Structure formats: structure tokens, C-alpha cells
Amino acid sequence: MNEPASRLPSTFRLIVTGGGTGGHTYPALTAVRALQARLAAEGRALDVLWIGTPDGLEARVAPAEGIAFTTVATGKIRRSANPLKMISPANVRDMARVPLGVAQARKIVSDFRPDVVLATGGYVAVPAGLAARMCKRPLVLHEQTVRLGLANRKLAGSAARIAVSSESTLPLLPGDVRSAAVVTGNPVRPEVLTGHADKAVAALGLDGFDRRLPTLYVTGGAQGAQQINNVIRDALSWLLERANVVHQCGPANVEALRASASALPPHLAGRYYLTGFVGPELPDVLALADVVVSRSGAGTLAELTALGKPAVFVPLASAAGNEQAHNAQHLEDAGAAVALTGEITAARLQEALGPLLTDPARRAGMAEAARVHGRPDAADRLVDVLLSAASSG
After folding, report:
1. 3-class DSSP state for residue 218?
2. 198 and 226 in contact (C-beta within 8 Å)?
3. Torsion-angle region of 392 (φ positive above 0: left; ψ -120 to 50: alpha; else: beta)
4. How many helices (H) and strands (E) does the chain have?
5. Phi then psi for 48, rounded to 5 degrees?
6. Fewer CB atoms inside 10 Å of the end CB: C or N, the chain?
7. Using H for helix, E for strand and C for coil, what is the string for 226-251?
8. How remote is the C-alpha of 173 from its chain's centroid?
9. Is 93 annotated as a binding residue?
10. Which residues lie closer than 8 Å to 196 by C-beta, 6 or more apart?
11. How far apart, in Å, are the Cα atoms of 53 and each of 18, 50, 140, 155?
């Protein structure tokens, strides 16, 4: 049971560690914002320090959000199925940096004296997480994917709480840490949940769209995905007979795709909106979308399930630990998505999308199954865990 606000210190001190990619960075940022709002409602302040890497996404995101930022030495372990390849000169050199990083992190944690340390994964989380244990500060891990990532596996035994994104993670945890686990979901940026379809039509000038047809949103992430772009290009005429398409293809791919779409008849061409990047209008595009084709990173899954969007996932085969394939399969097994793995062809994409584009009842069923797995309140749940760990730490 939490203490009354009057007995709590007026400033809550939090160290956040994790990053390298958006998958580790944005859930942490969303949790920080939610914690800040919770404390402000109680008349309290948040003092937060982010421990990251100098070249990771967090090095740009944290300072832009007004969050104090510092770095420690890290060692990136290059994984291989062959144990002998793990003992590479680069791995040996990087492993030697870990003790230095731990020493640096221990000084930072000792000086800052956080009420709790939140680690969201990535190589930098290991030294900071170990330092939390050495300094006897409560450590909360957050795992975005179905299976624990490498950093969180290393830190699990040191954690006061392990916040996971899915019920499916619980049986995969080592028995000795399962009692520390709590299902929170993966924090979703609140703005993603507030889109309006009509705003997307106006902002993007989608006057050629036939609103009687479903709208398909295709995305390969910020840089685009060549694999997805190629299969959409090959199936484009078929798709446009059945749907409007918003295709976010990555800035480097626009010209080639525009050239290949130039032969479309006018009535189909008007249903195709090609863009390199979708920015602030993303929530509105997601609101407009009836079906989504995308990679299956943890952040994407969290957003699409929170919104209840039927999806066809094309997992990134090179993702660490094959996590994207696990993510996609988990939702396919629940009837909440379709997972396309292996060789992806236009014919396979058409087979997957056909029933969703032509059968509103099928779409509605998958949307409901996705919504069951969505946790739009994940950030608030994670804040509960942080406050609980701090009060009992």
C-alpha cells in the first residue's frame, strides 16, 4: 500500500537506462512522461537522469525532452549460433569495457541516489542495472518483446520487479524470477491513440480515395523496408481494385516506386498515396487505416493492438533473437494478425490480405482479437510498478 502523498518526499528521483533503438527508447520516454504527470497531480516533482550510449537514439531523444543525460562505457556482444564465433576480437574487446561501464554507472547511481532505476533493454542497461544492485537501489526491468532480451536476461536476478508486455512471457521466465514479474503491456505514446481519419484525408489530400473501400496502411518503418516495398509494388493493381493504399516507403525509395506506379489507370492511381515518411499525422493515418501491413517490432505491436487494428506482419528476419517472428506468431496464434515469414511474394500477400479487404466481418473479428491484446494503459501500469518498487525498496 502506498504512503499518503503528504508523507512522501516532494521530489521523486528516477534513473532511466536503455536505448540504442526506438524499441527500447520510446517506452522509457512514455513511462517518464506518465510518471511526471502522476507526480504533478500529487504536487510532486520528478528528477530524472537517463544513462545511455552517445550514439544511440536516446542521446537525441532524452535531451530534446529536457531530460538530463549521461553515458557509460558499454560492450556490444555480437551474437552467433556458432559459440566459437562469439569469441571474436571485437567481442573480447567490448566485453573488456563492461567492468569500466559498471564502475562508471556505480558512481552515477551512488551520487544521484534514485528512488528506483528503470531499465528497458539494450547493452547500456547492463552496467546501470548491475550498479543499481550494488548500490541497493530498486531495479525495475521492462521487456517489450515476448521473450526476454539479452540485457534483461542478464539483469533478471537483480530486479525488484520485471514488467512484461504479454501474458505469454510469464511461462518463458526462469522459475526463480517469475514471482517478480507483472504484466503491464508496452507503453504507447498517448498521441497515437487520439487520431482522426478525416484529418488524415485533409492533411494528405486524399481526395482520390474511395471511402466506400477499406484503407490499407503499409509501412516499413522510418527508412522503409525493401522487402515490403517490392511486394506491394508487385501486388499494387490488385490491391487498388480492393482498397485505398497509404504507402510509407522510406525517403530513398519514393522515386522508384512512383515510376513503377505511373502506369496505373487514373481511377486506381487516385487511391494510392505514396510517401517517404509519415510524421505528426501518423495518429490520423492509423485512425484512417482499416488494415495495416508492417514489420512486427514490439512498439508497432503495442500501437496496433491498443488501437485494435487488423494487421499482416512481415517480420524482419535479422531481428535480434528472431524476436519479430515470435511477436508476429504470438498474435497470429490469437487470431489477432497474420504472420508472413519466409519468402514473401505478391501471391502470398494477396492470399493474406484478400479476406481482410473483402470481408468486413473478418476484419472486425481480427480487430476485436487485436484489441484484447492491446494495453492502452500500459504506461500507467508501469508507473504503478515503479512507485510500488520505490516504496518497498
Report:
1. strand
2. no
3. alpha
4. 17, 13
5. -125, 140
6. N
7. HHHHHHHHHHHHHHHHHCEEEEECCH
8. 20
9. no
10. 284, 287
11. 8, 10, 19, 18
22 is in an annotated binding site: yes
Long-range contacts of 135-138 (CB under 8 A, 24+ apart): 135/106, 135/109, 135/110, 137/15, 137/109, 137/113, 137/393, 138/389, 138/390, 138/392, 138/393
* Local confidence pLDDT in tens for the 393 residues of the chain: 454 444 566 899 999 999 988 889 999 999 999 999 999 999 999 999 999 999 999 999 999 999 999 999 986 654 555 665 656 666 666 666 688 999 999 999 999 999 999 999 999 999 999 999 999 999 999 999 988 988 999 999 999 999 999 998 999 999 999 999 999 999 999 999 999 999 999 999 999 999 999 999 999 987 889 999 999 999 999 999 999 999 999 999 999 999 999 999 999 999 999 999 999 999 999 999 999 999 999 999 999 999 999 999 999 887 666 889 988 999 999 999 999 998 999 999 999 999 999 999 999 999 999 999 999 999 999 999 999 999 986
Q: Is 23 annotated as a binding residue?
A: yes
The residue whose grid cell reads 496496433 is 304
Cell numbers given for 131: 550498479
Q: Is 324 annotated as a binding residue?
A: yes
Who's near 315: CB < 8 A, 6+ residues apart?
295, 296, 322, 324, 325, 327, 328, 339, 340, 341
The Cα 335–Cα 349 span in angstroms is: 17
- In the structure grid, which three cell numbers stand for residue 125, read together? 542497461
Pairing label, strands 116-119, 181-183: unpaired
